Amino acid sequence: MSATPDVAAERFEPHRDRLFGVSYRMTGSVADAEDCVQEAFVRWQRTDIGAVDHDEAFLVRTVSRLAIDRQRQAARRRETYVGPWLPEPLLAPVTQLATASVDPADEAELADSLSFAFVVMLDRLSASERAAFILHDVFGVPFDEIATTLEREPEACRQLASRARRKLRDTDASADAGPRPAVGTDAANALGALLGALLTGDVEACLHHLAPGVVLTSDAGPHRRAARRHVVGADRVVRLVTNLFARDVGLVTEIRPVAVNGAMGLYVDHVEGPLVFTGDSGPDGRIHHIWIQMNPEKVSSPPDR
Q1: Model confidence over 70-108: pLDDT tens digits?
Q2: DSSP character for 276?
Q3: How far apart are CA 270 and CA 268, in angstroms?
């Protein structure tokens, strides 16, 4: 027998943030993650929760299966997608960048796994590899539980996670963007300085903040103009972005800083649809990768200040 709505909600709500974190990392989509959490809640309401021994394990298993289905659907859509594909950015007020952590070590690890750079790399994994890696390496779920979720043997799940780690290491080592991005204050300061230089049109300052081999990737979807390939090199990136700002200055109604996946970013309210800029920095303090999300289907409303 299912529980009353109040009891079901009372037992579900403490796990909502964790469930969203799992599903967002698996899908790379805020909308899909929210849908997965909501569907998990609907299923929870229909469950005889009195027979559930461990609420979190049950709910993580439910939302993981829903997220795997969503990720596989997205992989099929990518086969005909126009231009580069980027995840949906997770936006928050910029004031959240200064939020203190209760446990700095745990917070840093979770922040690293939520960074836009990391979510981009996760797209290189299959749905099963992504699930096994995220559940075990990010959220510490035992392989026995992952085996139940994926309906595989624990050893097979260990192999999936191992293969995922190897792919991520190979991707990181061969990436044009250079070293593994820094997450936190240094990265936020580097991007903030770059964005300030862009807004003032200071080309020399822009070049100072960019690594020589910086890579710019823009996802415009099928209906907006954008570079359909990666733009590589500081000179080319500065020329493209400064031209974009100069060309569209009359079409922009607002520009403001926002937190993008826990790092500094820029939200541009454009008459043709919003844009979100973010990036990452390397140990040299320069920006090694810039991402511009222009697909209106992947940019949510701007967060409150």
Answers
A1: 999 988 888 888 889 999 999 999 887 755 444 444 555
A2: E
A3: 6
